[in-house]
Write a structure and sequence with these properties.
Length: about 200
C-alpha cells in the first residue's frame, strides 16, 4: 500500500473549515496551521492552500461563514429583544466563528464576500432597531440605538463565553437573563412599579 496521501474528500474546503473550527473552539485561532489542518483532513499539506491561499484566507472564510450564520439567525427574530437572544445563542452555538468574526487582524478585512456577509448581519440588526416603536428612543440616532443593542448582546455573549458570568447568573438560563437585561435597557417593556 502506498504511503502517499491522495485526495479523497468530496468537499475538501468544508473538511478544512470544520477542522479549523474544531481547533479554534478548543485552542483558539492562534493555534491554527494549514499544515496541521491538512494532516487532520488526511490530505497533502498544499491542499488547504489551494482553497484558502493562506491562514488569513482560511480565517476570512470562517468569519464570512459566521456572519452569514448570524444574519440567518437574526433574520428569524420577532423583535429586537429576540434578535439579542438569537445573537447570544449564535455565540454559544458557534463559539469558534464568534472568536474570529470580530478580530479583523486575523483575516482579510477588505474581502468582498466578508464585507457582504457583515453587511447582511448589520442590516438585520438595524432592522430590529427600526422595528422599535418610533424607530428607537425618540430623539436618538438610530445608528446609536443599534450600537447600544449590539453592545448589550455582544458584551453579554463575550462575558458568557469567557466564563465571567458564572457567578452573577449562576444556574439561570443565559437567554432568560439576557431578556431581563434587554427589558432594563428598553423602557417600553420595563416592569412597572405599582401605581405607575
Amino acid at each position: 500500500m502506498s504511503s502517499r496521501r491522495t485526495y479523497h474528500h468530496g468537499d475538501l474546503r468544508r473538511a478544512v473549515l470544520t477542522a479549523a473550527l474544531d481547533v479554534i473552539a478548543t485552542d483558539g485561532p492562534s493555534a491554527l496551521s494549514l499544515r496541521d489542518l491538512a494532516r487532520r483532513a488526511g490530505v497533502s499539506h498544499a491542499a488547504p492552500a489551494h482553497h484558502f491561499k493562506d491562514r488569513a484566507g482560511l480565517l476570512t472564510a470562517v468569519a464570512t461563514e459566521g456572519f452569514d450564520l448570524l444574519a440567518a439567525a437574526l433574520g428569524e427574530a420577532a423583535d429586537l429583544k429576540d434578535a439579542g437572544v438569537r445573537y447570544v445563542r449564535f455565540a454559544t452555538d458557534h463559539p469558534a466563528h464568534f472568536q474570529v468574526m470580530f478580530q479583523p487582524d486575523l483575516h482579510h478585512a477588505d474581502d468582498p464576500e466578508l464585507l457582504a456577509a457583515k453587511g447582511r448581519a448589520g442590516d438585520r440588526l438595524r432592522a430590529g432597531v427600526a422595528g422599535l416603536p418610533g424607530g428607537g428612543t425618540p430623539g436618538t440616532d438610530p445608528r446609536l440605538a443599534g450600537v447600544a443593542a449590539w453592545s448589550l448582546a455582544h458584551g453579554f455573549a463575550t462575558l458568557l463565553l469567557s466564563h465571567n458570568l458564572e457567578g452573577p447568573i449562576g444556574e439561570r438560563d443565559p437567554e432568560e437573563v439576557f431578556r431581563t437585561l434587554a427589558r432594563l435597557l428598553f423602557a417600553d417593556d420595563a416592569p412597572q412599579l405599582p401605581g405607575e
